[in-house]
From TrEMBL:
It comes from Paragonimus skrjabini miyazakii. PANTHER family: ARM REPEAT SUPERFAMILY PROTEIN (PTHR48287:SF1). It comes from the Eukaryota. This is RRP12 N-terminal HEAT domain-containing protein. It holds the Pfam family HEAT_RRP12_N. Residues 41-200 form the RRP12 N-terminal HEAT domain. InterPro entries: HEAT_RRP12_N, RRP12.
């Protein structure tokens, strides 16, 4: 074992001891190589705080407990939910969103996501609409939140997609599929693909299309038409300016 391996193991041991976290869903947090030291520090700090909160309440560090705690961080009061008035400093929001993505995608069962759909979707949608894709900090929040919302929708039964409320939530993901920021756009694409990949909840028919396919295609077609109109108008304007009144 070389020095680098020993150093890596030492950090893993240290991080595990500091966070006191034993849930395997967060193993990646401790063992991965981070390109962003500041985000790593925030993630470890938030994980430490959340784990301590669960321990203080006599919890067992189950996926449900982490899910409930991380979601509740974003929830201030039923009537007042503002990004600037949340329970923790805004600098830790990307870390909280990242941890929520991990636990939702790796450990939270579909049954729990279906049971908490209305409240969780309300919180995630509010956060998405409160963020700007032009803000660097908000981009770090948007990316995991889009994946979280996609995971929440993926867990819903096929029959649920006949409800306007579910289709309405899905539109918030579709809004970002042509976002100017590549990383945000890619996250929305991943969320959409994860949803549409589940053709049927029981997996008995591989040829069944997801109920959201039509809505997805319709949204893309509208976006293409709008883009084509913009291109046509821009081209016409340029030609008019160049050629004067002869056009």
């Amino acid at each position: 074992m070389d020095v680098r391996d020993r150093s890596s193991l030492s950090f893993v041991s240290w991080a595990t001891n500091v966070t006191k976290c034993s849930n395997p869903a967060f193993e990646k947090v401790i063992s991965r190589v981070w390109n962003n030291p500041e985000l790593q520090k925030d993630v470890l700090a938030v994980l430490t705080g959340v784990t301590k909160l669960i321990h203080d309440k006599g919890g067992t560090e189950s996926a449900a407990e982490y899910y409930a705690t991380l979601v509740s961080i974003y929830y201030n009061t039923p009537k007042v939910m503002k990004l600037t008035a949340l329970n923790t400093p805004s600098c830790t929001k990307p870390a909280e969103a990242y941890l929520l993505k991990l636990i939702m995608c790796q450990a939270v069962p579909d049954s729990l996501l279906r049971a908490t759909f209305a409240e969780a979707a309300k919180i995630l949608v509010h956060l998405l609409t409160s963020c700007s894709a032009m803000d660097a900090t908000h981009i770090s929040i948007l990316k995991p939140l889009l994946i979280c919302l996609g995971r929440l929708l993926r867990a819903q039964f096929r029959e649920s997609w006949s409800l306007e409320s579910v289709r309405h939530i899905y539109r918030y993901i579709l809004r970002f599929i042509d976002c100017e920021k590549p990383t945000v756009r890619r996250s929305s694409h991943i969320a959409v693909c994860n949803i549409l990949h589940i053709a049927s909840n029981d997996g008995t028919d591989e040829n069944v299309f997801h109920p959201a396919c039509h809505q997805t295609v319709q949204h893309i077609c509208v976006s293409i038409r709008q883009e084509m109109r913009y291109v046509w108008f821009s081209t016409f304007t340029i030609v008019t300016l160049l050629c004067g009144n002869d056009v």
